Amino acid sequence: MLAVLAGTLAGVALGTISGLVPGLHANTLAGVLLAFDSALLPVFGPEILAAVLFGALITHSFLDIIPGTFLGVPSADTPLAILPAHRLCMAGLGQEAVRLSVLGSAMGVVIGVPAAILALYLMPALQPGIDWGIGILVIAVAGYLIVTSDAPGWSLSIFSLSGLLGLFCFRYSYLSWNTLGEGSVLMPLLSGLFGIALLSRAGAGKFPDQRFTGTGVSTRQIVRSTTVGSIAGGLVGWLPGLSNATANAVLTPFIGTENQERCFIAATGAANTANALLGLAAFYALERTRNGVMVAISMQEIPPFGTLLFAGCVAACCAYGIAVAVAGKAGKFNGIDVKNLNIVVIGIITALSILLCGPFGLLILCLATAIGYAPALLNLHRVSCMGAIMVPLILSSFGLLSW
User: Fold this and answer.
1) Which of 350, 48, 36 is nearest to 200 (CA)?
2) For residues 51 and 61, what is the distance between their CA atoms, to the nearest angstrom?
3) Per-residue pLDDT tens digits for 27-37
4) Which of the chain's termini has less CB crowding within 10 Å, N or C?
5) 198 by DSSP, 3-state: which?
6) If DSSP states are collapsed to H, E and C, what string results for 264-291?
7) In whole angstroms, how far apart are CA 129 and each of 239, 241, 277, 280?
8) 260 in helix, strand or coil?
9) How far apart are CA 336 and CA 347, in angstroms?
């Protein structure tokens, strides 16, 4: 168990890097480790490597809110959460946004661990009936988001247009360099829709002084929003083909109007972590891999389920402290010119898109940015842009797409 603990702490270190560096994901690190599998396995053994991988995944789910909050750069898991988090940051409350998210992630562990254990034994018998309903569920969520928007016609247009871009992006992903794996194409796609489109319209001035005076939400609101988030993340973690980005979209209709933005941040934090835990249960119960980490673990001798749950809980405790400590350093941005900072961030996003995906990534980034401008111009919620993820998912769930 001490060896597993050491592996978990190594995973925490890797997950901290992937969570804080835009464009990296724990799945990417899993791919790198898998490339050295033949050299690492004889030295460390499958249990330690699995603990490293799952510890990194859990840690990443706690920390990936930080680049979005302070820099406005979305990750594959937090495209919608960065919008309210970055707004709070621009009001001087970035540390509050991060604390809300990691509090949600902690609640995702509290709810997700027992849910994962129950799902491991109860859900396999229900799986045949679950699989066929995925597309219908996503259509229902998309329809609700469109119909309840301020301008359903425009919302449908943006949803459809972003969906076409998503189809184009995934269909021709082989044109990408895929430097860090096939998931690399998500970087320019989501960064254009939810990152550059936001940063390029931001006002000028100085980066506001960051302060923390509390989370600004009641215990009741936290419990309610994180429970909803954990359920959404758990469903997405169990169902095939769905992603954390889909969970973000699913959450939108179920967050109350009271302290809506803060509750949404907490809910998405819970969803991302619960997603990882239920994805682990789905792997053990159904032998289905929901993410790159599970793929890497499946390529070796599989350790006991309880070992990885232990690693996940230890990683969560460490990640909570790391996230709070990093957010506490936000004062270093005080007084920086916001416009210049945004230009630097946009430059980094562009460079990363080219590095990860080559010219194809730059094309996707430009097209996504153009579509990402539409919601702000039409005064609509940016959730309409989630068509880029949801449309390919709907079509693939009905067997209309094979990739």
Assistant:
1) 350
2) 15
3) 666 666 665 66
4) N
5) helix
6) HHHHHHHHHHHHHHHHHHHHHHHCCCCC
7) 11, 16, 22, 20
8) helix
9) 17
